[in-house]
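Reading a protein record of the kind used here takes only a little practice. The record below shows the convention in full:
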Amino acid sequence: MASHLRNQRVFVAGHKGMVGSAIVRRLKALGYDNILIASRGELDLMNQTKVQAWFTENKPEQVYIAAAKVGGIHANNTQPMLSHINVGTGVDCTIRELSESVARVTGYSGGLTFDSSKPDGTPRKLMDVSRLKALGWRAETSLEEGLTETYQWFLDNVEDLRQQ
């Protein structure tokens, strides 16, 4: 992991839950020391105005959403979320472009074969990030840069991962 990432402000929503607390523990183990947390009393994620104000004040550079409605899967299935914020670059890419990026990043020199007679799922995979942009957040890492950093991290840690 690049050392500059460890200095970023990282917000973990739902830090007291099973998943959120595991994320916080892992971030601390990786050396992150600027982890932002907020209890439900401090930040009501259902209140868009308060969320916008909190994001404006705290300016997190990474956001992990592990918050869930109490009651688990049943509650989430029977009481849909009122609002959400997509996190992404706001840039679309095709399956071909993604495949070619992965090949470049990993040094794969074999051929890529595409069968255009078969559908490849959702025609567009572009997320609407307008609400996040309205909060002043912009992606600083392109997809290819993110793939490169992630692949380098994997190469640097592959032996440790195999031992786990």
Remarks:
- The mean pLDDT is 83.
- Residues 46 and 82 are 7 Å apart (CA to CA).
- The beta strands are 10-13, 35-36, 62-65.
- The two ends are 18 Å apart (CA to CA).
